[in-house]
Amino acid sequence: MTLSPAAELHVHIEGTLEPELIYELAERNGIDLPYADLDDLRARYEFDDLQSFLDLYYANMQVLVTAQDFTDLALAYLHRAAQANVVRAELFFDPQAHLVRGVELSTVMEGLGAAIKRSPSETGVEAALIACFLRDRPPAEAVEVLSELIAMGAPIIGIGLDSAERDYPPRLFKEVFDLAAEHGLHRVAHAGEEGPADYIREALDVLGVERVDHGVRCLEDPDLVERLVRDQVPLTVCPLSNVRLKGVARMEEHPLKRMLELGLNVSIHSDDPAYFGGYLDDNVTAVRDALGLTPEDLETLAANSLASAFR
Ligand code: HPA
Ligand code: ZN
C-alpha cells in the first residue's frame, strides 16, 4: 500500500535505536552490553507501562557516544521514514539523558545537526529538531539546558516535555516554556498518555503548547474534548505505543476512530518505533486493520499531520 505523504511529528530519535544498531555502536565504542546476545536484547522489548519501557530506553542510550553515532542514528531513521512516505520529520531528542551520562551537548547537537542538514538530499525527508525536557528531572535543570542550547545557537525549532508523566504535572515546567516562548521556539508537551486529562489542560493553559503529544486521555473529560475540537489543537497519537505500553488493551479498542468522529485534530505517529513494533506505516496499517479506517479517514489523518507541522 502506498501511503499518503505525511509528517512525523512524534518520534523520539533515541527510540529509533534498533537492536542491531545498539550492537554495532557498542562494538564501535568498546562498550560491554549487559545482554547475552541480540535475541536476549530483543526478548526484553515487552513492557508493562511507560516506566518499564523508559528503563530500557535510557539504558540502551549508553551506546550513543560520538557525534557520528547521533548522525548515524538519525539518518538511519530518516531513510526508514522515507519508505513510509514521510516528507517532514520533527525529531524529539532528550539532551538531559545524554548530559547525565557525560555526553556533551555540543556532541549531541553536532551529530543531530549534521543529520538534519544532510537529510533532504540523502533521504528526501525534510527534518527538524525539538529538544525535550525530562519531567522526572529538576525543572531548574531544564532551564539551564535550554539556556545553553540557545547560547550555542543549537538548530532546534522548539521544545517538548517527555519521560515519566504521572505525578509530574506540566505546571512544574512553566519557566522553561516561558523561556522558549521568549526565544520564538515552538512548544509541545506529552500529556494525557498515562497522566490525567487535566495535564492536557495545564499544558495548554500554563505552558502554551501548540500541539499535545498523545492526548488520548482527553476523552475522559467532555468539556476538554469540546475545547480541543473548537480550537483544533493537534493531538499526535501513537497507536502501537499505546498498546505496547498498555494504555490501550488491544488495537481493536484504540480510541483513534472515535477521536476522528468527534472532530478532534488527530494524526498518527510512531513514538519509539524500534521499541513498539513499527514505524509510521506500521502504525497506519495496524489501526486501519483493527478499526476499519476508510481511505478517507487515512487521508484526513495524513492531511492533519502535514497541517500541524511547524513549517
Ligand atoms: N512517553 C514519554 N516519554 C518518552 C516516550 C514516551 O512514549 N518515549 C521517549 N520518552
Ligand atoms: Zn513520545
Automatic annotation (TrEMBL):
Where does this protein hold Zn(2+)? H10, H12, H190, D271
Catalysed conversion reaction? adenine + H2O + H(+) = hypoxanthine + NH4(+)
Q: Pfam families, from UniProt?
A: A_deaminase
Q: How is the cofactor bound?
A: Binds 1 zinc ion per subunit.
Q: Does the keyword Hydrolase apply?
A: yes
Recite the UniProt keywords alphabetically.
Hydrolase, Metal-binding, Nucleotide metabolism, Zinc
Using the record's annotation, list all stretches that form the Adenosine deaminase domain.
Answer: 5-310
Active site, UniProt feature: E193 (proton donor)
Q: InterPro entries under this entry?
A: A_deaminase_dom, ADE, Ado/ade_deaminase, Metal_Hydrolase
Q: Tell me the domain of life.
A: Bacteria
* Keyword flag Metal-binding: yes
Task: Give the matching HAMAP family.
Answer: Adenine_deaminase
The name of this protein is: Adenine deaminase
In the record, what lineage is assigned to the organism producing the protein?
Bacteria, Bacillati, Actinomycetota, Actinomycetes, Propionibacteriales
